[in-house]
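For reproducibility, we list the full input for the S-adenosylmethionine complex.
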Amino acid sequence: MTDGISIDVDPEAGRVLVRQGGRAVAEVVSDGALRLTFAEGVPATVQEAVRRHVRHLRETIRSAFWELRSHAVNQATRAFLATLEEPVPGRLNIGCGRDLRPGWTNIDFNPRAESHVRDGVTYLNWDLRFGIPLGDGSADFLHSSHFLEHLRFEEGLHLLRECRRVLKPEGTLRFALPDFKATFRAYVEDDRQLLDYAIREHRLLDHMPPFARTYADFISRSVYENYEHKYVWDMENVTACLRNAGFADIRQTDYDPAVDIPDMLRRRFSFYLTAT
Ligand SMILES: C[S@@+](CC[C@H](N)C(=O)[O-])C[C@H]1O[C@@H](n2cnc3c(N)ncnc32)[C@H](O)[C@@H]1O
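The corresponding predicted structure, in tokenized form, follows.
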């Protein structure tokens, strides 16, 4: 409650209600954008006050919508899975993004997408903060590229335990993760060759204004990934967490063309590991 204005998130109805003095004055509907719809007769002064407060609470409201969407998407995917006559493929691609692999079960969260099986591609729209929607020991192989760092530490650890749970005892986990150590080293050692290569060839700073394309801007882009990254992993901390999650044999490996994404940006700025 701020100055008589309260914001109620109603997960059942899937909406956010803005109240003033106990009376609903605005409903915020969004699939990302914020839109205020005021009831008739709400005075301009009140509308302005609501707008001001909602602006301040923008991030909170966005997060609230994200949670609502995630809840609805996960429910829909559980229902979708219940309709399938065959089990989904036992090779999992977690946090797949656009890397939709035929013959695999590809999982990613997109508030606007739907789970489907089409042209040999199985896609599950699912918020992986809430585990993996598959049974114990149902997967032979689990691949994930540049995804774990998108979770908070606790969510990441939970996901690693989920990976262990869904993998068969002899199943293998394969991760590609951003090589932050190499990126930091290049920065500290002023390795202009590598930094210029990344900035020039992969155009990572093209979205930034021309005066904000320095090496520190590049580091920020790599580490925060436009504010989407939540945690930094290296071989040491990911190994400790994989052990904690129940994996016994964890090894750093080279790029493997049979399973890893061939994109040069990925190859140059990733480290790879397998765990069983
Ligand atoms: C950097 S992309 C990696 C995509 C692909 N694996 C690759 O290496 O090119 C990170 C992916 O993680 C997904 N992601 C982030 N948070 C997620 C979550 N909570 N649940 C499921 N997917 C998520 C994003 O939608 C995005 O597709």
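The first helix runs from residue 44 to 56. The first strand starts at residue 5 and ends at 10. Both points were considered when choosing residues for closer inspection.
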